[in-house]
Amino acid sequence: MSQSLNISHFSTGYCTAHERIAIRSGKWKEIPFHATCSLIEHPSLGPIVFDTGYTERFYEVTARFPNRIYAYVTPTTTQPEWSLKSQLEARGIKAEEVPYVIISHFHADHIAGLKDFPYSNILCSKAAFDYTLARKGMAAVQKGILPELLPEDLSERVEFIEDQPKTQREDALEAHIDYFGDGSLKFVLLPGHAHGQIGVLVGEESDQPELLAGDAYWLTESLEKNILPAGITGLLIDSWLDYVDTFHRLRTFRKQYPHITMTSCHCPSTFAEKIQNRHLF
Ligand SMILES: [Zn+2]
C-alpha cells in the first residue's frame, strides 16, 4: 500500500510517577505520564483505534480493594471530555463506526475506554488475551489488570493477530503479521513490559510510516541514550529479560530506519509533539 494512513494521537489523561521509574538517569521528581491513544484512518477499513486509554471508569473500578492498589501506585487524572470516545465524536467519528480496536496490552491505562466501543472487533495477541483472562483479584492487580474493565462479550468480539501468517523480516523487528493483508498494519511482538504486548507498524511503504510501540519503552531519550528504567521498575514489568531484549531491538530498528517515526504511549515528547488535544490540558 503506497497511500498514507492518517494517524492522530490523543491523550486521555495522565498518571504521575517519578521520572526515575522511566529512566534510571532521571530524577526522583513526579512527572505526568499521559495515556495516549491513536486513531488510524484506513482508506478502506475506516477509523481504527490503537488502545483506549483512561476514562472515569478507572475511578469506579479502583474505588475498592484490591483494585485500589493500582490507583495508589499510579495516581490518575482523567475527565469525561478527555475520553477517546468523546474526542472521536468531536472529530465526527462515532464509536459504532470503528471496526477495530487494537489493544497493545491489557493494562488498565490502555483498556479503561474499551467498553466505549461495544460494536468493534477487538484485535490483540492471543498470548496477552489468555494471560489476562487467567488472572483475577490480587493476582490480576499485581500484573496491572483490572478485569472489571473488560467487556462481558470480549470473547465473542476478540480476534488474534496470531490467526494470520507471520512474515520474517531481515531487521531488528524480526517478524511481523500483516493482519489485513494489504501491508497497512504490520503487527509486531514487543513483549517484556506486559505479557504478549504488541505494536503496529503503520504504513511501512507509505511516505509517513510510524511504529506505535505501546509501552515497549517509556521515554524516547532512554532509547536514544541507551538508558534503561531504574531497577525498581522491574517490579512493574512482566519480564525484565524480554523488556531489555525488546528495548535493544527497537534501538537497532531506529538506527536501521531513521525515517520511521516511533511513538511510545507515555513519553512526554509524544504529548508535546503529537497530541491533537493538548489544548484540553
Ligand atoms: Zn501504559
Verbal overview:
- With 281 residues, the chain is an alpha/beta fold.
- It is built from 11 helices and 13 strands.
- It has helices at residues 19-22, 57-61, 68-73, 84-90, 108-111, 126-133, 137-141, 154-157, 220-225, 240-256, 268-274, and strands at residues 6-18, 30-42, 46-50, 76-77, 100-102, 121-124, 158-160, 166-168, 175-178, 185-189, 198-202, 210-212, 261-263.
- The strands form 2 sheets. It has a 7-stranded mixed β-sheet with strand order 4-1-2-3-5-6-7. A 6-stranded mixed β-sheet has the order 8-9-10-11-12-13, with no helix packed on it.
- A hairpin with a 7-residue loop joins strand 11 (198-202) and strand 12 (210-212).
- The longest helix has 17 residues, at 240-256.
- The termini are far apart.
- Bound molecules: zinc ion.
- Zinc ion binds next to helix 5.
SSE topology sketch:
Layout: E1 6-18, H1 19-22, E2 30-42, E3 46-50, H2 57-61, H3 68-73, E4 76-77, H4 84-90, E5 100-102, H5 108-111, E6 121-124, H6 126-133, H7 137-141, H8 154-157, E7 158-160, E8 166-168, E9 175-178, E10 185-189, E11 198-202, E12 210-212, H9 220-225, H10 240-256, E13 261-263, H11 268-274
Parallel strand pairs: 3-5, 5-6, 6-7, 12-13
Antiparallel strand pairs: 1-2, 1-4, 2-3, 8-9, 9-10, 10-11, 11-12
Bound molecules: zinc ion (ZN).
Residues 107, 109-110, 215, 265-266 line the site of zinc ion (ZN).
First CA to last CA: what distance?
36 Å
Give helix % range: 25-40%
Overall pLDDT score: 92
- Class by alpha and beta content: alpha/beta
Rounded Rg: 17 Å
The profile of the biggest β sheet is: 7 strands, mixed
Strand content: 15-25%
